[in-house]
Amino acid sequence: MAQARKIKKVVLAYSGGLDTSVILPWIKENYGCSVVAFVCDIGQGDEEMKGIAAKAKASGASKCVIRNCQKTFVEEYLWPLLKSGAVYEGRYLLGTSVARPLIAQEQVRVAHEEKADAVAHGATGKGNDQVRFETSFMALDPSLKVIAPWREARFREEIHSREAALQYAQDRKIRVDASKKSIYSRDRNLWHLSHEGAELESPWNEPQDRMFVLSKPIEKAPNRPEYVQLEFEQGVPVSLDGRRTDGVKLIGKLNTIGGKHGVGQADLAENRLVGMKSRGVYETPGGTILYEAHRALEALCLDRETLHYKQQVALRYAELVYDGRWFAALREAIDAFVNRTQRNVTGTVRVKLYKGNCVAVGARSPYSQYVEALASFEMGAEYAPEDAGGFISLFGLPMRVAGTVERQQQKRGKGRKPGK
User: Fold this and answer.
1) Residues 19, 34, 162, 279: which is the catalytic one?
2) Residue 294: is it exposed, middle or buried by C-beta count within 10 angstroms (0-12/13-18/19+)?
3) How far, in Å, CA of 214 to CA of 353, rounded?
4) 185 carries an active-site annotation
5) Catalytic residue among 34, 97, 129, 325
6) Which listed residue (34, 59, 84, 100) is catalytic?
7) Is the dihedral of CA 216, 219, 222, 228 positive or negative?
8) Is 104:129 a contact under the CB 8 Å cutoff?
9) Is residue 46 annotated as part of the catalytic site, yes or no?
10) What digits encode the pLDDT tens for the residues 211-236?
11) What per-residue confidence (pLDDT) applies to 372?
């Protein structure tokens, strides 16, 4: 308990969910310090935010600080993510991963304002979020102490399961939304909603219809398709169906439209940074539409070398975000490259939504490198077929040399036989 006596005030990243609802009183009781609950509003929704300050104080918080960071989330985190094209393991649009550094950044700011000497989070000892929070704390203020209750033996002895956490909250008359019948671990923000736990812990179990919140089950989606039209300026979406709007409203509207059609549902067993696989189901309707539209516009506006290299970089960017290295120099350097590629990614894309599918069906741009006359099957003055022969001869020269050497070796009985 020597460490506990050194800490006078801690700022806890507070969501009002089951974990942080029990962690708040537990820190207060076991560390004997005051706890400031920090709520970062990044689009969790009115239901989750309603009465959260009163709940935090009822749970023992000395103060509850709420910051609306939705605009910052969109402009400084989601738009760079979108422009990068980063997707983790082909499916996950990084909704939780990209939010954690913003929460940590604001949490450190509140710690400075409140003259706190520690910060705390509710991430489990098996999850990725503990890494994302703490690497961000290290980058922003390494002098702050970090309390991570799920890594403490005394906490796990008392609260060893979600059922035990429910009982702990009940004993202290703390209201929580989770129950033994509906015990998903969820994370929600403007970009997505994730689901883990319960029957999802078996990869054989199909997600139940009752689990989905942002989107309809595909079978219950409308039987008619719907089209949306998105306009981009230098890789950033600025208009929906001909009406300019800010990013927060645009994503919210796309979530509603896409969710109606069951768009953006991803079910995957992902490789966690800490070394194990976990099964999660993600709902990202608006983000899925934006990624598809942005991809289609880049296909028109970027040259082959740049597009292909950017696709490689996107894999590394996704790993950096997933691994909690948002404040790493490499991520910032990649952003500089990405922003250069986006100078001409301006134009309009039409996207078709139907029964969980999201497909770009039309795109146009004043910077399009798609030249219809060149792409046409009809030969014209723009392209001389005779030139292709010389190109192929030079392009294939290394293969011709290698093939000649190989045939010579075969004649001597030293080369590999054809088909081997």
Assistant:
1) 19
2) buried
3) 15
4) yes
5) 129
6) 100
7) positive
8) no
9) no
10) 999 999 999 999 999 999 999 999 99
11) 80
